[in-house]
Design a protein that fits this description.
By secondary structure, the chain is α+β, with helices and mostly antiparallel strands. It is built from 23 helices and 17 strands.
Length: 690
């Protein structure tokens, strides 16, 4: 049996460290995207609730269960969540080395490890909070076990294969295509070389299904009657094949952050090199190309089966599944380069130059892909800045506002990144709620005029059908009870293919915020005022204040009061450590006489020595109603968030607010001559952020 020598093991260790370093670079630095926040949400649930939720979804539960236990042990930051995938991404580098060693020898094994370590697909999915590196890990282990079984059939290897096959299916349904492709090679090979092993092999396939049997009815229902609206575009067969060809070969060689239309020649080079592996004798009995043919079957076979199903039944293809099946591709590249170079001891210089040039070109292409990936993840479907969207909402949503999630699965992003409480989260069809707690109301839209069977009619499903008549009636009720409806949109054409909700909002609301969120989901944050003018009746105010700005005999603006909370929901009057958290302040004003200019609001937290510890300035209502447009008697409100710096020195801090002229910077004074209103004190009892 081949083994790495001591010097080769040292080289392999360096390669593994290189792969680890690449995968650690900027890990968790960017926002999780749409699907990743689903992983974070499900991992945060109790195990029974997570399994029940997954049964209503379109994925099996093993990845979420393992991620659940990982977060219990290590925490739930974005870095920690992604690190779980990183473990298996680095393990795939080691498995590529092992497979290359066993299939072709130590030189191919080390080169395969290097190419796997540099693989843009490998780095990408090692940093993604999804199940792809875990699924690829199970499939690579299964491939290695099958290789050993074909070389020397043993019952223990069949048991290992059955367990790994079951684990792969419990991780990702698309693993079934990999297992099916593997059978397309193994069954004919066994019939030709080890005919007595055909029945034991078939028994192992039955064992895989038995291990998966508890989930099989759920998987069948999800596959044949999906609980979600269709979201993949159906393409003509030739268009689908052309797209898969161009995307697939480019992604295998250089990942997903290079434009396939421009970089397909690099993908073609990688394909040619990998096909050259068929000329290198492998250590599998039979034809000299048998080993390489097995590896090619595991890389290309599942994708071809997906394309066949997509053409014949329903769209299933996405380039991300190329990553799931790509574990053996670095081995094929390494074997192909070895075949091109020939035996090193008698290699022809021209062949060495050809192999070396191909290797350099592939590595340079991988480097360009990594540069694009790390430089701008939002441009290449690697991420969406949903964290920024939620932070924006948190900073500006008021206590009498509502948040409308116009998508089936954007609410996990809100739950993951929202630092404070949420008063109510539910379907639009269940609005208004019987009771609302502290925090904003979050309303989830349904599939407008969709198939009544969406979500199987389950009241707990994230997807549900709702008529446009009921949608309009519920939106009207929402508008009647909220000052502003904040809409978080993303993939809303899936739930609302005719744009009914967008049209209704534009016809009944007064838009004043439209923030595009970087990324491939094309998410947006939009603010819709529910009346064309501010209301004349102020709501109940937690902390009433009566402070008049302007001359005593003719005040301009009256401060009516304020509401306040912090991330820890502590009151300003409590002696709590606010260091490192945020304070939310909602101010209420009323125009007494028409202001003659545009004023800006300042909110400051002043240290005991009078210096500014935190500040948030802004135009009231994000500029929807500039102060010079206020009419006497109208009540205006606006929310501000002060982000307190970590490490605040202990002491009593003063919270003040006021107005200043945007043009001159001059503060608007109160009737008593002061230029600000004292709102209260914040006592910082320690210097360490929580």
């Amino acid at each position: 049996m081949s083994r790495f020598r001591t010097s080769e093991r040292i080289v392999l260790l360096v390669i593994l460290l290189l792969g680890l370093g690449l995968r650690l670079h900027r890990l968790g630095a960017d926002s999780l995207w749409y699907d990743e926040t689903v992983s974070a949400l499900l991992a945060s649930k109790p195990l029974a609730a997570m399994v029940a939720h997954t049964a209503r979804d379109i994925h099996p539960p093993l990845y979420y269960a393992l991620l659940h236990f990982w977060t219990l042990a290590a925490g739930s930051s974005d870095f920690v969540l992604a690190f779980f995938s990183l473990w298996f991404g680095v393990a795939l580098v080691a498995l590529a080395a092992h497979l290359g060693l066993r299939a072709y020898g130590p030189q191919v094994g080390l080169l395969a490890a290097l190419l796997a370590a540099l693989s843009p697909l490998g780095v990408w999915y090692s940093q993604e909070v999804r199940m792809y590196t875990l699924g690829s890990f199970w499939l690579m282990l299964a491939l290695i076990v099958v290789w050993r079984y074909l070389v020397r059939p043993r019952s223990a290897l069949l048991v290992a294969y059955a367990v790994l096959g079951g684990l792969s299916l419990w991780t990702l349904y698309y693993s079934a295509f990999a297992l099916a492709a593997l059978n397309l090679f193994v069954l004919p090979w066994l019939w030709m070389h080890h005919r007595r092993q055909v029945l034991p092999w078939l028994a192992a396939q039955v064992a895989v299904l038995l291990l998966y049997a508890p989930w099989l009815p759920i998987a069948g229902r999800q596959a044949l009657d999906p609980p979600v609206p269709p979201w993949r575009e159906a393409l003509a067969p030739l268009a689908l094949l052309a797209r898969a060809w161009q995307e697939g070969i480019t992604a295998l060689a250089a990942g997903q952050s290079l434009d396939p239309a421009a970089w397909w020649p690099l993908g073609l080079l990688g394909l040619a090199v990998a096909l050259a592996a068929l000329a290198l004798p492998g250590r599998l009995p039979g034809r000299r190309s048998a080993g390489s043919l097995l590896l090619w079957t595991t890389v290309a076979g599942p994708v071809l089966l997906i394309l066949l199903v997509s053409v014949a039944f329903t769209p299933l293809y996405h380039v991300r599944y190329v990553a799931l099946y790509s574990g053996a591709y670095p081995v094929l590249l390494a074997a192909g380069l070895a075949a091109i170079a020939g035996p090193l001891e008698r290699a022809h210089p021209a062949r060495l130059i050809l192999a070396g040039g191909a290797l350099v070109a592939l590595i340079l292409g991988m480097g360009a892909s990594q540069r694009n990936y790390f430089g701008n993840r939002y441009a290449y479907e690697a991420a969406d800045n949903l964290q920024g969207a939620v932070s924006f909402l948190y900073d500006y949503v008021g206590p009498h506002d509502a948040i409308l999630i116009n998508a089936g699965y954007l609410y996990p992003a809100l739950l993951h990144y929202w630092p404070g409480p949420i008063g109510w989260l539910g379907r639009l069809s269940d609005y208004p709620p019987a009771q609302v707690g502290q925090g904003p109301v979050v309303v989830l839209t349904g599939h407008v005029d969709g198939d009544p069977n969406i979500g199987w009619g389950d009241p707990a499903s994230d997807f549900y059908a709702i008529s446009h008549e009921e949608t309009a009636a519920r939106l009207a009720s929402l508008f009647a009870s909220a000052n502003t409806v904040w809409e978080l949109r993303g993939y809303d054409t899936v739930n609302d293919p005719t744009g009914f909700i967008r049209t209704w909002l534009s016809q009944h609301g007064d838009p004043y915020v439209d923030l595009a969120v970087p990324g491939q989901t094309f998410a947006r944050v939009q603010g819709w005022r529910t009346s064309s003018r501010p209301r004349t009746q102020a709501p109940a105010i937690a902390h009433p204040v009566d402070a008049a700005f302007g001359p005593a005999d003719s005040p301009t603006i009256r401060l009516l009061g304020y509401d306040q909370t912090s991330e820890q929901k502590s009151d300003f009057s409590e002696k709590s450590d606010f260091s490192g958290e945020t304070l939310r302040l909602t101010l209420y004003w009323q125009a007494v006489t028409p202001p003659d200019r545009s004023y800006k609001v300042f909110n400051q937290l002043l240290a005991p020595d009078g210096s500014v510890a935190a500040q948030n300035d802004g135009v009231p209502g994000l500029g929807a109603y500039p102060t010079q447009t206020w009419l006497p008697g109208e009540s205006m409100e606006s929310s501000f968030v002060l982000h307190l710096p970590a490490g605040l020195a202990p002491g009593s801090y003063r919270l003040i607010t006021g107005f200043y002229d945007e043009a001159s910077g001059e503060r608007l004074r109160l009737a008593n001559g002061d230029d600000h209103v004292e709102l209260g004190a914040v006592t910082v009892s320690g210097s360490s952020p929580r």
